[in-house]
Amino acid sequence: MVSITGYGKATEEAVNNFQEFVGFEIPEDYKQFLLKHNGGTTTVQNCKFYVDGLDTLVCLHALYGLELHDKQLDLQKWHEENREDLHKNCIIIGNDTCAGKILLIDNEEEKGVYFWDQGWYSDPSSQDENIYKVASSFQSFIEGLKVPEEI
After folding, report:
1. Where are the alpha helices (DSSP H) in the chain?
2. Which of 41, 93, 115, 147 has the fewest CB atoms lying closer than 10 Å?
3. Is pLDDT of 3 > 80?
4. Is the pTM of this model over 0.85?
């Protein structure tokens, strides 16, 4: 499994405040990730994840954390800026190396990690269809990350 270089550890209070802010309880595996790493990057550069709906590999840039000095890596900032565009019980948890975002959705219709091709860079993305399921859980997303020599 790919190792993560985290941004420190989130506190229980920070996680609880974030859940209150977004209005839902985040999945336990993701909560544990925040408490242990508080976001981060992979220790091996250019780790990728497969997006079946696009039949392509996407390069992971960063996973966001809570109460970070660098607001470009802050979960709450991304949720605040994009709240109106997000599905129910959805948060932006990271980004790729282009304009794509990584979403964590936890509602009755959809559960798991998704790739949001915000800039419609990949065929067949369009304004109406640009969200693709990547993994059924945050843990399976992390386990599915591939280092360059595995590709």
Report:
1. 12-22, 28-36, 75-82, 138-143
2. 147
3. yes
4. yes
